[in-house]
UniProtKB/TrEMBL annotation:
Coiled coil: none annotated. It comes from Emcibacter nanhaiensis. Keywords: Transferase. The keyword Transferase applies. The keyword Endoplasmic reticulum does not apply. One of its GO terms (molecular function) is CoA-transferase activity. It comes from the Bacteria. This is CoA transferase.
Length: 406
């Protein structure tokens, strides 16, 4: 058994935030039915390189981007612009526990697939809408993309090198953090709504906004502003309120040193050969070190440059000083802890034998995630799903195929 193996999810979303949410539900055991446009599918199937390569023709197949967010799902193709396609989706929604969509606000109303319409035929439906700016407010009609949301939510105002240093200026995160955050909050909200439904027998509409998610994820930086009235600035790899907590140069590269308290700072300067620095009034407490960051960091950098990264890492680790290497993804998947935790998963795939994936961080002792289903080919499960859930026979399915509705 898996935690959600009695739940059916109708996934009308595409790209990242919605698929990330529904992949989380699939990991927990839900049957996720991904509805895609015939002949095209999710945009991310073409967002490469890199791509899988067709083993028979050598031609490009689905992109790695698509693979990252769609394992464990069934793919069906339905032309939503046709009355017959709309009827199929309504009938599936009648059977579903959850529907996830990321169309523009009001975009599904013309098809009769908005929440008020589907609530009439399935009052228990948990309907989750993911948009850039939410269902109301002056920006609600706008399209929202991760990059612009990172900028608008303040993320880029605190990410990047200091403005007074070479290379200074705003910088986005290296992954789509606004999309991923919204997807995770969507999954959390869906689980909460399902629990509530168990008490009331009623579904509800969930309104998830990328902007809301990213502003919330500003966390301590947001509260620093709200408490002080002063907007935090970019500090490169430094930390706004903990020092030293950043990357440091070594003889052979860079590494991270993350000192979280005064005792760890005393250990650090002792290991580096300058124990008296722990009693220097400028550096005695974390508050002192934050105020005197510009004096402290160059002194520490001078010492860390004396040793190669590997030697310094072992020296600090042996003294229980938090530190770590700056890994490439090649390094990551060769790391012994990553290997021990099984974070690479090779998923069985009907066309490619196996395709790689990354393990879910959700570790449940009694209902664990299983990795038995790779991201589906476009429309791979159309006939199976429509026969199973809607009872469509071969004749009807053939007719729908001939009309290019599925």
């Amino acid at each position: 058994m898996r935690a959600l193996d009695d739940i059916i999810v109708l996934d009308l979303s595409r790209v990242l935030a919605g698929p990330w949410a529904t992949q989380t539900l699939a990991d927990l055991g839900a049957r996720v039915i991904k509805v895609e446009k015939p002949g095209a599918g999710d945009d991310t199937r073409g967002w490469g390189p890199p791509f899988l390569t067709d083993p028979e023709t050598g031609e490009r197949d689905d992109a790695a981007y698509y693979l990252c967010a769609n394992r464990g799902k069934d793919s069906i193709t339905v032309d939503m612009s046709t009355p017959e396609g709309q009827d199929i989706i309504r009938r599936l929604a009648e059977k579903a526990d959850v529907l996830v969509e990321n169309y523009k606000v009001g975009g599904l109303k013309k098809y009769g697939l908005d929440y008020p319409s589907l609530k009439e035929i399935n009052p228990k439906l948990v309907y989750c809408s993911i948009t850039g700016f939410g269902q109301d407010g002056p920006y609600a009609p706008r399209a929202g993309y991760d990059f612009m949301i990172q900028a608008m939510a303040g993320m880029m105002s605190v990410t990047g090198e200091r403005d007074d240093l070479p290379g200074g200026g705003p910088q986005k995160a290296g992954v789509a953090v606004a999309d991923l955050g919204a997807g995770l909050y969507a999954a959390v909200a869906i689980l909460g709504a399902l629990h509530q439904r168990g008490r009331t027998s009623k579904g509800q509409h969930i309104d998830i906004s990328l902007l809301d998610a990213q502003v919330f994820n500003m966390a301590n930086q947001a509260l620093s502003y709200l408490v002080s009235g002063t907007a935090p600035k970019r500090l490169g790899n430094g930390h706004a309120t903990v020092v030293p907590y950043q990357s440091f140069p070594t003889r052979t590269g860079h590494m991270i040193i993350a000192v979280g308290n005064d005792n760890q700072f005393r250990k650090l300067v002792t290991v580096l050969g300058r124990p008296e620095m722990a009693d220097d009034p400028r550096f005695r407490t974390n508050g002192d070190r934050v105020e005197n960051r510009d004096a402290l960091i160059p002194m520490l950098e001078e010492m860390t440059r004396e040793r190669p990264s590997g030697e310094l890492y072992e020296l600090l680790e042996s003294s229980s000083i938090p530190c770590g290497p700056i890994n490439t993804l090649e390094d990551v998947f060769q790391d012994p802890q990553v290997i021990a935790r099984g974070l690479r998963k090779d998923l069985p795939h009907g066309k490619h034998g196996t395709v790689p994936g990354v393990a879910s961080p959700l570790r449940l002792s009694d209902s664990p995630v299983s990795y038995d289903k790779a991201p589906p080919l476009l429309g791979e499960n159309t006939d199976e799903v429509l026969a199973d859930l809607l009872g469509l026979g071969e004749t009807k399915l053939g007719d729908l195929h001939d009309k290019e509705i599925i």
